[in-house]
Records
---
Amino acid sequence: MLFPLAVLATQVRFEMSGAGFWWGEARPRARILIIDDDRALSTLLGFVMRQEGFEVDTTNDSEAGIQLAIGTTYDALVLDLKMPGKDGRTVFREIRASGVQTPVLILSAFNARQATEELGAEAYLNKPFEPHELAQAVHRLVNREP
């Protein structure tokens, strides 16, 4: 029996991505939150990550970042350490204290690796970095790859 193409397309979707093949309904897009006080950088990173297929929320305010991270389900958080008001370490601790266990990628120009180890975050990038490096790191984080 022949089916109209539109019927087949709604029943089975085939998607090819860097993570392999996906059969069934359309692959859900990973949702990330970027918390960074640098508006220009967070705008650029949001643009790059959307181009990589992520749903992206950004905020330049640490308190708003905490509220978003606690009140919204994300697949990963990207968190700058050096921010005015509550710094990234405080933001991280408050998010974890609320019970949220979303994987976190730490961004910092000041020894991000050490801060990641101290806090117990899952990944880090030292500033400066290339936008594609962030995309790769977040893909690994979302897919739980080392």
---
Amino acid sequence: MSQSPSLGLMVMWFLVVLALIPVTLWVLKRSGMAQGMGSQAGAMRTVAQHALGPGQRLVTVEVGEGEHRTWLVLGVTSNSIQTLHTLPPQAEPATHAVQPGFATLLQQIRQRGGKGQA
């Protein structure tokens, strides 16, 4: 009978530890500590990427901060990542003009059609 209380206590502590695992992971995720462990946050960012084929991409990545920034042109496949070229940081590539959505285009067509019929 003396074993019963210690077994119950052991089971209770086991359940407490099991409950603390997801709580601890949630706290780490919310605090941002889990992200960037072992590396500086913001020390690397993707500048541009272009799909060459299935599973093949050409990616330009900026590494470092401030005056120590460098751009790496990488060839990325499902099996490997190869550094193709290293260059100093350039001006940001021109972004493509944002095209209006389908709803906007449809509204413009309807407005033109309504004026022509009147």
